[in-house]
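Quick one, tokens below:
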């Protein structure tokens, strides 16, 4: 089964999404997501100039060999651009293999480990009351787990909070990076009140999650984790930047609040100490940015040895192709924890027809052979690329800060 064509499709039905389509001489094709939010065209160039010409004529069934060829062959291993490009190829090839076998992808991976995949939705509000209203809306929709984020008094804009209530927030919301101002003290004073209010209003059963977006120092993260223990969070995400994996030892010494890390990771080496030393509870590295199914499966198997579970990234900048493939993975992976879900807008759903379905706070990936997500190329062509950037974050005195 030879690869005869491989091309990149760039579309912006509300936001930029990059898709790789690989076609074989047997007429079977597969698609993979190649979206790296805010750096999309770097991956397009990487694929078009360095990867796709080398794929033509290769046997599409040799997924592992092609993965190794692209990874080792790059010489410049790892990094988000390289690993996103490899992921796009890898997921497209798994799609092809599963279609050729006439199986939904989860079957090829080893079959179902569960009947359905629990997801968490996003409730955001300018203040605590606004956020509670959004939590209520999610509970009504059936969600069993909700990530809660609210505006902080005295801080003008908070990343991860929608501009208007009832809407989603958009990670890349301006042509060039918007500048936000951050104040750790105000945040630490306010955010525990949000969790207290959610528990008070919605009781003990709802799973509550929260994302700190890397903004605290390790000791501040330890303090926050300890302060919110009474509210029994499902997880506290990215409480400090994780380039320095050792930082999490300090946090762990201070709190039993479960920790989730890894949406910016692209390799097993980024999370080796975090997993091996049981410094985190959930690993968020996901298919599109961490080398596809072939590599994330390695991360998940390694994590399983240490009782670390998966909690894949699933913001809107991960296309429906990643959502579909991730749901198959989640259906199979033994050490599944939870899956993030931010609904795409209806236009994006039209461009990417898919088999996955939401019901009662859970997803099922569907029974369509492959990962079950396709692309309507004609529709996609109507929405050209539009540059969009993630914001930057500064302290009040102007110092550039993490976000
Ligand atoms: O947990 C999450 O989903 C967030 O951290 C994302 O909004 C993330 O910042 C974006 O996907 C970045 O593109
Ligand atoms: Mg996050």
């Amino acid at each position: 089964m030879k690869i005869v064509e491989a091309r990149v499709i760039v579309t912006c039905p509300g936001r930029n999404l990059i898709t790789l389509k690989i076609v074989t001489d047997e007429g079977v094709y597969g698609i993979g997501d190649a979206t790296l939010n805010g750096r999309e065209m770097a991956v397009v160039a990487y694929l078009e100039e360095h990867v796709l010409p080398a794929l033509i004529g290769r046997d599409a069934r040799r997924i592992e060999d092609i993965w190794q060829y692209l990874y080792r062959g790059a010489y410049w291993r790892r990094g988000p651009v390289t690993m996103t490009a490899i992921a796009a190829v890898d997921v497209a090839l798994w799609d092809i293999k599963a279609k050729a076998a006439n199986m939904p992808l989860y079957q090829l991976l080893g079959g179902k480990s569960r009947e359905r995949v629990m997801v968490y939705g996003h409730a955001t509000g300018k203040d605590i009351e606004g956020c509670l209203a959004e939590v209520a809306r999610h509970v009504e929709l059936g969600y069993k787990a909700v990530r809660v984020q609210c505006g902080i008094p005295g801080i003008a804009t908070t990343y991860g909070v929608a501009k208007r209530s009832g809407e989603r927030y958009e990670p890349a919301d301006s042509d060039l990076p918007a500048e936000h101002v951050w104040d750790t003290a105000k945040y630490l004073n306010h955010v525990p009140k949000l969790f207290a209010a959610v528990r008070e209003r919605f009781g003990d059963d709802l799973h509550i999650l929260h994302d700190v977006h890397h903004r605290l120092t390790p000791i501040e993260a330890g303090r926050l984790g300890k302060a919110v223990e009474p509210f029994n969070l499902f997880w506290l995400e990215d409480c400090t930047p994780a380039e320095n994996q050792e930082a999490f030892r300090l946090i762990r010494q201070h709190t039993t609040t479960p920790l989730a890390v890894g949406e910016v990771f692209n390799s097993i080496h980024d999370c080796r100490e975090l997993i091996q030393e049981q410094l985190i509870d959930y690993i968020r590295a996901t298919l599109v940015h961490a080398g596809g199914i072939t590599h994330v499966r390695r991360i998940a198997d390694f994590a399983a040895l240490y009782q670390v579970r998966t909690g894949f990234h699933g913001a809107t900048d991960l296309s429906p192709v990643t959502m579909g493939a991730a749901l198959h993975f989640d259906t199979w992976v033994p050490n599944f924890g939870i899956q993030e879900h931010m609904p795409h807008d209806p236009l994006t759903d039209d461009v990417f027809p898919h088999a996955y379905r939401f019901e009662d706070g859970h997803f099922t990936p569907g029974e369509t052979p492959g990962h079950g997500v396709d692309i309507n190329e004609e529709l996609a062509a109507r929405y050209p690329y539009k540059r969009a950037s993630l914001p930057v974050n500064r302290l009040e005195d102007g110092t550039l800060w993490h976000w």
